[in-house]
Specification:
D-Maltodextrin-Binding Protein, domain 2, 11 strands, 39% helix, 17% strand, 2 domains, eleven-stranded mixed β-sheet
Length: 347
């Protein structure tokens, strides 16, 4: 009888081990990102199917708010991976040491000009250019040449035609301010803005107010020039209710007139799932994710092997020489620049 009981116990133990021993609970990674993050559910499902790792997306406000939360939680992170820190906030994140360095094998496919952190704490995922956009039809009807540079906006012929976003409250507004700083220098950008104000520039709180509230091509507004993105004309065609052969808008991509924003991904210090987090970073840099970026977030993939959708090829342009300011210089001067701009333009 005793032998039978022992045998039964061993069989039960073997059964338990066969069903559970060596099996680990499936990992769910938390991806911290900004409110504008958008990607196809099928794309994220592909990552889970390939790896068995689930992803929970945590939207933490705009890029600035997201960085602030990540810095405050340094060492005890709110997520495992963070995506969407751009070059205007990159130095703040790096200086607060919120990342674990990771040299992804996919970096070989990423554009070298986007790699702004040589230690690979923040890896580039996408880029977009903040540029002036104009209403093609308005300029044709009014027999006025569209603007070709920042200088044109202060010409009396363009008085009352431009709407921009507040540099203190808007990401494209800040990017456009940085473009003027790079173009005119610290000694000249405020003079430029004074002239722009004298030419009746309109300042709105954010991009939606400017684009869908004041821009003549997309609203009942009367302003045919707006600060938007180089990819906005492609978006106009893509979302048009009827098929368009030509975009109703165009971007000004002359040298120095646009500011390039680069978005990064990084593994957060303190994650309990570093191995799995590396796999997610690799996926965000890989072609399946990269090729899904343009038609969801209307920015360009950082991976040089990713194929662009036809609407981007036909209706958007990438500036050859955008304005650039290093993340370190932005971090050191951003608050002072924005304050000086506010006092000059919104006083």
């Amino acid at each position: 009888m005793k032998r039978i009981l022992i045998l039964v116990f061993l069989v039960m133990l073997l059964s338990i081990c066969l069903s559970g021993c060596g099996q680990q609970e499936p990992v769910t990674l938390r991806l911290m990102t900004h409110d504008s993050f958008d990607i196809a559910a099928e794309t994220m499902a592909q990552f889970t199917e390939e790896t068995g790792i689930a992803v929970e997306v945590f939207k933490a406000g705009d890029a600035g708010a997201m960085v602030n939360q990540a810095v405050l939680a340094a060492g005890d992170p709110l997520a495992d991976v963070i995506f969407g820190i751009d070059n205007t906030f990159l130095s703040r994140a790096l200086n607060n040491k919120i990342f674990i360095p990771y040299e992804s094998p996919v970096l070989d496919q990423i554009r070298d000009d986007l790699k702004l952190d040589p230690q690979n704490r923040a890896l580039p995922v996408d880029f977009g250019d903040v540029c002036l956009n104009y209403d093609r039809n308005w300029f044709a009807k009014n027999s006025l040449d569209p603007p070709r540079s920042l200088d044109d906006l202060i010409d009396p012929a363009y008085a009352g035609l431009t709407v921009v976003e507040n540099a203190a409250t808007s990401s494209p507004g800040l990017a456009f301010l940085l473009a003027t700083i790079d173009t005119y220098g610290e000694m000249g950008y405020l003079d430029y803005w004074q002239k722009l104000e004298g030419n009746d520039v309109l300042v709105t709180d954010g991009w939606e107010d400017a684009y869908y509230g004041a821009f003549s091509a997309s609203s009942d507004g009367s302003r045919p020039v707006v600060v938007s993105y180089a990819s906005s004309p492609a978006a106009e065609v893509f979302f048009a209710e009827t098929a368009l052969d030509e975009a109703p808008t165009a971007a000004v991509v002359s040298d120095g007139s646009c500011f390039r924003q680069v978005e990064f991904v990084g593994i957060l210090q303190g994650t309990k799932h570093e191995t799995e987090a590396r796999q997610l970073v690799d996926f965000l840099l890989s072609r399946p994710f990269q090729e899904d970026i343009p038609l969801h977030m209307f920015v360009y993939p950082a991976n040089e092997e990713a194929q662009l959708p036809e609407v981007f090829i036909e209706h958007s342009q990438v500036p050859q020489y955008p304005a650039t300011i290093s993340p370190e210089e932005i971090a050191a001067n951003r608050e002072a620049w924005v304050q000086a701009w506010t006092e000059t333009v919104l006083r």
